[in-house]
Target: Acyl-CoA thioester hydrolase
Amino acid sequence: MTSFSKELSFRWSDLDPNFHVRHSAYYDFGAQHRIEILESLGLTMKVLRSQNFGPILFREECVFRKEIMLSDKIVMHTKISKMRPDASRWSIVHEFINDEDKLCAIITVDGAWMDTKLRKIANPTPEIAMDAIRNFPKTNDFLEL
Model:
């Protein structure tokens, strides 16, 4: 697998007054896709809750390259671009590609795992999180931190 991919479906409420997808909708699509991916890798909400940990973001950035309109056909591709060997810190990239294979936007998030009881970074990284995140497809320029 080269990436986790998802075809997006835009709603009227995803648009801004200029009739293109509003900036915050991109972040919503990225967040939803990350949760769906974690679920597919065995990190369900039930597992996260029972083991008292979850993902936390330190930075989220979107670079907008080409506007997206309501009827555009967009596929979001998600990969991991950086990770520490113990999977304690990582960066995930979401690329929004149109049907002409043009990059419309790219979201980059930097995150870690949080112990939800202690409200601190999980140390050590839960084994199930290490196993899941290591199965993420990697970018061509993947960097081990």
Residues 30 and 94 are 7 Å apart (CA to CA). Residues 23-40 form the longest helix (18 residues).
